Automatic annotation (TrEMBL):
GO terms for cellular component: cytosol. Its EC number is 3.1.2.-. It comes from the Bacteria. InterPro entries: Cytosol_ACT (IPR040170), HOTDOG_ACOT (IPR033120), HotDog_dom_sf (IPR029069), Thioestr_dom (IPR006683). This is Acyl-CoA thioesterase YciA. Belongs to the acyl coenzyme A hydrolase family. One of its GO terms (biological process) is acyl-CoA metabolic process. The keyword Membrane does not apply. It is an enzyme of class 3 (hydrolase).
């Protein structure tokens, strides 16, 4: 087993944890969808880079579903897990949980399946390392 695979996060370990600020809120009092999408892409990219042991690019978001709004003062935990692995690409399931009410409530707010491709030095697809 390679070092990258040994260090993959467990399901209960968030890849990213962040608190949205006032600049991230829309006129409805909710966090912009684009902001959370960026956080999801960042977390998925962290995991993809670990698996690929190098640079990766997001090439698709196959399914994205907003389940509940993210509110100001929520603490956002972003989880990423490897769902499928190809020769050069991988599908990373990204899930976002909002912790609110001073830690008394957890709400699944969104999830999506992101596809990343491993890149070589010329920014062309390359084979993933053996797992």
């Amino acid at each position: 087993m390679t070092e990258a695979v040994r260090n993959l996060p467990k399901r209960n370990d968030p890849v990213l944890r962040v608190v949205p600020g006032p600049a991230d809120i829309n006129a409805n009092g909710h966090i912009f969808g684009g902001w959370v999408l960026g956080m999801m892409d960042q977390a998925g990219g962290i995991l993809a880079g670990r698996i690929a042991q190098g640079a990766c690019a997001t090439v698709a978001i196959e399914k994205m579903e907003f389940i509940a709004p993210i509110l100001l003062r929520d603490i956002i935990s972003v989880y990423a897990t490897l769902e499928r692995r190809g020769r050069t690409s991988m599908g990373i399931r990204v899930e976002v949980i909002a912790t609110r009410a001073r830690g008394q409530q957890e709400v699944k707010v969104t999830e999506g399946l992101f596809t990343f491709v491993a890149l070589d030095d010329d920014h062309k697809p390359r084979a993933l390392p053996e797992s």
